[in-house]
Amino acid sequence: MRTRVRDWLLRLCFALIRWLQDEPAQTLQPGDVVWCRMPLAQGQLENIPAAHQIRPYVVCQEDEQGIQAYACSSHPFPRVNERKVCRISGSKYGIGRDTYVDTSRMWKIPGANLYQYYFRIDPADLERISRCRAAKAQTQTIGVGCVVRRQGEVYYIYAVHNGHFQAFAMHRSQTGKGLMVSCHSVLYALELSRTFSLDLPLQLLQQFSLSEISRIARAWRKHQRQEQDRIDPKDCRFDHPVGQMFSLSGTLYFVYLYSLRQRIYGIRLDEEGCTDYRLHREKHLDCLKPEKICTFEDLQDAVAIMQEDKVLSEEMARALLRRRRDGC
């Protein structure tokens, strides 16, 4: 009995599959999502894994040769302007993952490439897709969180200072060690031990999400704390009095702390009393106008906060306060 039921179910399943495969060519309408083989040349298809050569498309129009449709993906399209991508809720249609529709390009798909019906998009979502298609592409500006290319090298911009982009170098990872990020499906390692100052022109490759920017910022702060723990005050130079203020702009000042390895370290504050207690690096201070020197009490408060935030080691904090007290 069980064998007969199993055979009957198998025949029913195979019949259903054949019916689904024949369905698209007969009843397709705008808004139907169907599985199709990608309409690419054979040479291009060979570079794509077989499991990814068949993907869903949203039917826009049917003609004698096949259909015109937009490509879909379960992931955002990294190379497409975000205003041209429409996100469709997967839970709304019972398909699990959300679907992203790329309206920046209409594909012509021959009838021989049609495989299987998937689901149908309702009128409200079809209207959203139409609005995405008509939307003007958003101008993408370069700033914090951008991955850029300059002279063949790839960089991640983590800050902007005095009109210059501060960046980390990115290298394709062979080992998977270090701080890893993904750009256009390629794994890169961020080199936190060196920073670069970049100017335009730069080629924008990708804008990271806020969560990814925050993750990198946390890793950078951790790296700075670890670097501070390894610094021996005996290795530092003091080319200026500790606490010497230099004018960066009309209301922004750089407060000198110490020099190390051709770099000058300090903190920033403005006239309104807002202080950035992160360590900042400058290449030189020769072109900056020196101002007054911070009082011992103000420097002591700043050093205490930096020590609490693990920006300065206890040994370095004592060395800075000792030099300020001695007037060095």
Topology:
Elements: H1 2-22, H2 24-27, E1 32-37, H3 42-45, E2 54-62, E3 66-73, E4 85-88, H4 90-93, E5 99-110, E6 114-120, H5 123-134, E7 146-150, E8 153-161, E9 164-172, E10 179-183, E11 186-198, E12 203-207, H6 210-230, E13 244-247, E14 252-260, E15 263-270, E16 275-282, E17 289-293, H7 296-308, H8 314-325
Antiparallel strand pairs: 1-2, 1-6, 2-3, 3-5, 4-5, 7-8, 7-12, 8-9, 9-11, 10-11, 13-14, 13-17, 14-15, 15-16
How would you explain this protein's 3D organization?
- With about 325 residues, the protein is of the alpha+beta class.
- It has 8 helices and 17 strands.
- The protein has helices spanning about 1-20, 25, 40-45, 90-95, 125-135, 210-230, 295-310, 315-325; strands at about 30-35, 55-60, 65-75, 85-90, 100-110, 115-120, 145-150, 155-160, 165-170, 180-185, 185-200, 205, 245, 250-260, 265-270, 275-280, 290-295.
- It is elongated, with a radius of gyration of 29 Å.
